[in-house]
Amino acid sequence: MLKKLIPLFGILLAAVVVMSTGAFTSVTADREATINVSGDASALLGLEAHAPYASYDDNGALVVELPSGVNVDAETDLGKVFTISNNGTQTVNVTIRQMLGANDVTDTSPILFTSSPDGNPSNMQAVWNTPLGSGDSIDVYIKVYTNMQGQYPYQIGTIMDSMTIVAE
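Given the sequence above, the corresponding structure tokens read:
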């Protein structure tokens, strides 16, 4: 009987050896990583606030506060509000999107984020897919056109509640 069991044990032992070679269930390795979080002014896409309409919150994020109650049927020029700098190594295209809740209202908002103090809807100098080379920066001016209801329909009240600056 022992002679019959020896080959069976040999087969089982060979199967265990074959299955146990080259396979593992887990590996543990110690690694170190340093992650630096920087405020908006020193990030790869730097955002520099210019008073009185822009500042930084306690976390270093840019905050833009437009005056409440801009005049109806008027052009309101807020001047230079912030500067966008490309602190990275590649050219990026910058776009400023305006949001109202979850809706993108960039195309219908009477607020114009322009890269020129002379920017206006007729010469379309909006910060939209604007190339920004490594080390370059652009000043962002804000103008509110409530006198162009036909082109930029809005309802009296909140026009936008946040903006998103996209660099691609």
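The first strand starts at residue 45 and ends at 49. Try to locate this feature in the token string yourself.
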